[in-house]
Write the C-alpha cells for this entry.
Amino acid sequence: MSDNAHTETTHSAAGFVRHGAASWRDYFTFNTDHKVIGIQYFVTTFTFFLVGGLLAMLIRYELLTPPAEFSTTTYNSLFTIHGSIMIFLWVIPAMAGFGNYLVPLMIGADDMAYPRLNATSFWLIPIGGLTIIAGYFVGQSNSGWTAYPPLSLQPPVGQTLWIVGVIILGTSSLLGAINFLVTIALMRAPGLTPGRLPLFCWAMVSTSLMALFATPVLTAALIMLLLERLLGMNFFNVNEGGDPLMWQHLFWFYSHPAVYIMVLPGMGLVSEILPVFSRKPVFGYKAIAASSMAIAIIGFAVWGHHMFTSGMNPWLRIPFMLGSMVIAVPTGVKIFNWLGTIWGGKIDLKTPMLFALGFLGMFTIGGLSGVTLASVPVDIHVTDTYYVVAHLHYVLFGGSVFALYAALYMWFPKITGRMYNEAWGKIHFWLNFVGFNLTFLPMHWLGLQGMPRRVAEYAPQFQTVNQIASIGGFLLGISALPFLVNALVSWARGPKAVDNPWRSLTLEWQTTSPPPVHNFAVTPVVTHGPYDYGVGIAPTGVAAPAAAAAAPAGD
Amino acid sequence: MTPEQLLLVAVAAILVLTVGLGAALATGVYFFARQVWQISASAATKPTEVAPAAKPKPPVSPTAAAAPPRRGAAGLGIVIFILAIIVAGILAGRYAQLMPIEASTESGQVDVLFNAMLGIAVVIFLFVEGILLYSALRFRRKKGDESDGPPIHGSNRLEVAWTIIPAIIVTWLAVYSYQILIQLQTPRRDAMTIEVTGRQFQWQFHYPDSDVTSNDLHVPLGKPVRMKITSQDVIHSFWVPAFRVKQDAMPMRETDTYFTADALGQYRVVCAELCGAGHAQMGLTSYVIVESQADFDAWIARQKGATAGAGDPVGLFTTLYGCAGCHTLAAAGATGKVGPDLDGIGTAAGTRVRGQSAAAYVKDSILNPDAFIAPKCPGGPCPNPSLMPKDFGTRISPTDLDALVNFLLQQK
C-alpha cells in the first residue's frame, strides 16, 4: 500500500475520526475517506464471501451421498448461515463498496455527502456479521435465511442473535442508501447533467430508492420477531391472534426488492465495462437508465410470487403473477441493449470483459427461469425445490457475483495503482465459469424431478446428479484461489498501472490511480457523455509520462 | 371468482392484448414493408448505381468499406439463425422431458404449460447467447488497433421491438397460466375429502368418511380428491411431485388443493417447507398409493378393523401420535432420526433418573419431555430444551398412554 503514500491522513477534532490513509493501519480506523471505506468494504465482504463459500462446500460435501453425514440440525445451520452471509454480508455490502468507491469519483465529487454516516455504515457490517456468526457458540440459527415463524420461534439462542445481526446490517444498508441518493443528487460536477450520469450511478439511484423504501419494513418485521421470541408478544402465533403469513408478506416485501438491490448495481457495473472494452457508446443509454427505474418500481409489486403455495388468498396470485411476468420486460431491455453495445464494436477480451460477458450469458438463464417461476401452475410444482436454488444462483452468482468479479478486475488498477496478472485472471474466469455451470445447471433438473431444497438427505435416484453438482461446487471453491493470490500479489508488487489503462472516458479515470485524498486536483467540468467513443475524444492518463505529470505529488 | 373479479381480469387482459398485439402487428408490418422495399430498391438500383453506393463515405475503416456488399449475406445469415433457433425451441417444447412421471390429470396440463415456456426460453436463450458468442468472436479488436468502434447510440425502432415482443410473450404466458390455474383451483363437486396434518416430523392422513388414520395416503384411481391441509406445529408443505400439487400446511388453519390421480402406482409425498431437524426425513418416509376403487375400499375396510387404539400400540406409536417421525424403534418399523433411539428403552428407562421406576420415567418423558434430557440423539448430544412436543398431556388419552408406556417397557 505504499502507493497511497502520497495521500495524507488528517485527524479531526473528534480524535478517533480519520480521513485518508497513509499506512495500512488507517484502514482499521473510523475513516471518513470514501476510498478508504470502499476498500474496507471490499476486504471485509470478500472475507465473508470466503467463509460463506466454505460453508457452501460443506453443504456440497453433505450432498455427495443420500444419507445424512452431519446431524440435520448442523446441516440446517449450514445453509442458514451460508445464505445469510452471501446476501447480507457479501453481495449487498460489496455492491455498496463499489458505490462508495466509484460514485464520488464518477460524478467528480471529493467525497460522499455524509462522510461520518458513511463510516458508520461500514462499521455496522463487521458488527452485524460477527453477531450472526456468534450464534455458533450458543446454538446456531437453523430456520433458513427466510426465518419463517413458527419455526424461527423454536429454541436456538443463535436465532435471536441472527435477528439482531440482520437488523444491524439492514440499518447499514439504509444509511448507505440515503448517502448515495444525496450525493448523486447534490454533488455532481458542473456539466454532469442527468443525461451524462454514468449508468452505474443511475443503478445506485434505483437501488438506493429500493433500499430506502423496503429495508424499514424488514427491520419492523425483525423487531416483531425479536419481541415475540423474547417477550412472547405473539405477533405470529395463530393461537393468540397472530398470523405466520404476516411475516411472509413483510419479509418478502423487503426480500424481493432485495434481489434487485443485489443485482441492479451489478447491471450498472456491467453497463460501465461493456462500452469500454467494446470501444463503442453504450447502446440505448436512456433505455438502460429508465429500465433500472422501472425495475425499482415494479419490483415492489411482485413479492407475492414467493407465496403462491402459502395459503394466501388464491386470487391474489394473479396480479402477482402479472407483475412478476412484466418485470421481465425491463430486464430484457437491458440484455438486448448490452448486446447492441457489443455488436459491431472492437471487443477486447480482457478479464473484466470476460466476466461482464459471463454475467450477460448467465444472468439471461436466471431471468428465463424466473419467468417460469412467475407462472403460478409451474411455480406450485417447483417452489421450494432445487429448481429455485438453481434459479437464484443464476441470478445472484451468475449475475451479481460475476459482475462483482468483473468490477474488481476493472477497477483494480484504479484502486491499487497496480495491474493484476491477466493470464491468471483468465484462468480464474474459466475455472469459475465451468465450476458455476457444473454446480447449478443440474439443479434445475433435480428440482423439476422432485428434490426439495434444504434437505441433508435425499432419495437415492438423485445421487449421480448431486455428485456432479458437488464436483462443480468444489471446482468453484478452488477457482477463488487464483483470484485471491493474483489480487494479493499484484496489490503488493504488481507492475505499476498508468492512470487510465483501459482508455475509459468516465470521470473516475481522469484522475490519478489511485486518486489523491480529495480525488481531483481541480473540480472537473464535464463536456461530453460518459461513453462518447468513436467521435475522437481523447481519454487522459493513458500513457505513463502523462500520469507522472498529472500527479506531481505522487510516489 | 366473483363476477367483478372476472370482469376486471377480462378488461385488463383485453386492454393489454389489444394494445400489445396492435403495436406488435404495426411494428411487424412496418419492418416487413421496409425490408421488402429495401430489397426491391437495392435489386432495382444496384446494377445501375454501383458507383454512387460506394461514393458517399470514403473507406475510413476496413469494416465500413466491406459493409455494403456483405449486407445481403448478413441478412440471410440472420434469417437462417432466427429460423434455426425457432426450430430448436419448437423441438425442445415438443420433445423435452424434464418433468417426472405424470400421475394425475393436473400434471399433464402443468407439463404442457412448462414445455411451452421451455420452448420460448430456448429460443430467447439461443438468440442472446448466439449474438453474444458471435460478437465476441467476430468483432474482436485487432492487435495494435487503438481506434474506436462506430459511435452508434441506439435505435428507437429496436427499443420498441424488444420492449413490445417480450411484453406480448409474457402477457400470453400470464393468460395461458391463468387458464390452467383456474382449472387447478376450481373446487370439484364430487371430490372425496382427505385430511392431512403436518407435524414435526410426519404426515398424518385422516379419512373423515370412515375415520381411518394412516401415515401413507391411499387414493382411488380416477376419483377427484380434495386435500384439507393443516399443521399441528410449524409450517409444512404438502407436495406430491408426480401430481404437480403443492400446498403449504399452516398451523391452526385450513388450506386445500385438488387432484385426480390417473396412474396406478406408489409415489412420494414430500415436505417442501423447512420444518426443522426432521424436514428431509418427512419427505422420504411417506407415500401416496394410487389403487383401484376396489383395492381402496378393501384397504379402508382393513384399516377400520385395525384402527389405532389401545389394542394396537404400534399404530399409536407410528400413526396416531407420530412418535415414529423422530424416534427409531425396530418393533414398530420406525426409523426417525431426530430424537433418541428407543430400541432397548425398556432396559435403559430404569437407569436414567435415580429413584424413578422405568414406568414412571417413560410416562414422564412423554408428558414432560424436558424433565430429563436423554444423553444421546442420532445427531450428537440431545438439545436442551428438546424438540419433542410439550403438549401430549393435553391430547393423549389415559388408556392410550398406558398402552404406549407398556409397549415401550417391553423394548428390552
